[in-house]
């Protein structure tokens, strides 16, 4: 399959910087595709790094160790899995995708073909790889921390509002059922006595004409 115009432009872009700058850009591109936990895992397992194969049962290449903390189906233990991870597909056409080129160059450089892909760099050293890795971990950690703090600050006014409403509800006087019942009991006899007085008054009023006639 012929390399697409987009791929050629991508490759030309990466051919312009000197070798070290190009390696730095490729590494940053690759590290950016993995979560921070994968970068930290790779950093802590540098003693298990190998060259020439993806995995030997104990150690692994850069991409195998980076993907080791991920789900089993996302671990990179072959070229097809490497292609799938960066492009979403597998096979030769996908290996010409721009997103795959940094990984392809790094694999070949690690396997001893560094001068063919990074001008002026005879061998890709692990020291250079981990210098870039350390910078990426620090930058990503700070960025995620700032993002978390920003979210917390946005939530604080809402939390304060909820707390104030909760305090208002707690401070509002609740009806004292016992007192209401007692007051009701006191009112009822008074109303009953008043009704009785009204009935007596009405009865007396009805008798008054008869009394006057008798007189």
**Overall pLDDT, averaged?**
78
Helix content: 55-70%
Individual helix count: 8
Annotation, overall tally of beta strands: 0
Let me know the largest β-sheet: none
Globally, the shape reads elongated
Order of helices and strands: HHHHHHHH
How much beta, percentage-wise?
Answer: under 5%
Description:
- 69% of the residues lie in helices and 0% in strands.
- It is built from eight helices and no strands.
- Helix 2 packs antiparallel against helix 6 and helix 3 crosses helix 7.
- The longest helix is centred in the C-terminal third of the chain and has 46 residues.
- It starts with a helix and ends with a helix.
Descriptive tags:
215 residues; mainly alpha; 8 helices; disordered C terminus; elongated
Blueprint of the fold:
Layout: H1 5-15, H2 19-31, H3 36-44, H4 62-67, H5 79-87, H6 101-117, H7 126-171, H8 177-214
Helix pairs in contact: 2-6, 2-7, 3-7
Short summary:
By secondary structure, the protein is mainly α.
């Amino acid at each position: 399959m012929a390399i697409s115009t987009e791929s050629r432009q991508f490759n030309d872009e990466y051919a312009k910087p000197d070798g070290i700058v190009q390696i730095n850009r490729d590494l940053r591109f690759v590290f950016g595709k993995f979560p921070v936990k994968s970068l930290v895992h790779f950093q802590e397992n540098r003693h298990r790094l190998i060259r020439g194969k993806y995995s030997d049962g104990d150690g692994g290449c850069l991409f195998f160790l980076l993907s080791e903390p991920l789900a089993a189906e996302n671990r990179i233990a072959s070229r097809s899995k490497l292609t799938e991870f960066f492009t979403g597909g597998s096979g030769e056409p996908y290996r010409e995708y721009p997103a795959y080129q940094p990984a392809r160059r790094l694999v070949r450089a690690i396997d001893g073909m560094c001068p063919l892909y990074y001008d002026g760099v005879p061998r890709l050293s692990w020291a250079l790889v981990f210098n870039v890795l350390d910078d990426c971990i620090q930058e990503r950690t700070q960025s995620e921390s700032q993002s978390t703090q920003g979210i917390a600050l946005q939530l604080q006014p809402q939390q304060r509002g909820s707390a104030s409403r909760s305090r208002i509800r707690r401070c509002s006087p609740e009806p004292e059922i016992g007192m209401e019942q007692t007051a009701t009991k006191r009112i009822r006899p008074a109303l009953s006595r008043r009704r009785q007085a009204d009935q007596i008054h009405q009865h007396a009023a009805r008798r008054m004409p008869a009394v006057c006639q008798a007189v």
